[in-house]
Design brief:
73 residues; 0% strand; mainly alpha
Length: 73
C-alpha cells in the first residue's frame, strides 16, 4: 500500500474503522490507490456522513423541536 494512502487512512478515524470492518478493501488499495476515493464514498454512505444525510438529520431535529414547541403551547 502506498504511503499517502496509509496516511490518509490514519488521519481519518472513520476510514480506519471502516477498513477494519471491511478488510476486502486492503486488496483493492494495495493494487491501486485510486480506490481510496471509492472506499471513502462507500464509508460515507454506510455511516450516513453524506451532505444529504446531514441535511436530513438537521431537518429531523428541527421537526422534533417544532413539535415539542407545539406541545408546550
Amino acid at each position: 500500500m502506498q504511503v499517502d494512502v496509509k496516511l490518509a487512512i490514519e488521519r481519518n478515524p472513520n476510514l480506519k474503522r471502516y477498513l477494519k470492518e471491511n478488510s476486502y478493501w486492503y486488496h483493492y488499495l494495495n493494487r491501486n490507490s485510486v480506490y481510496l476515493k471509492a472506499m471513502e464514498e462507500e464509508m460515507k454512505k454506510k455511516y450516513k456522513l453524506t451532505p444529504e444525510d446531514k441535511i436530513e438529520k438537521m431537518r429531523d431535529s428541527i421537526t422534533m423541536v417544532s413539535e415539542f414547541l407545539k406541545i408546550l403551547k
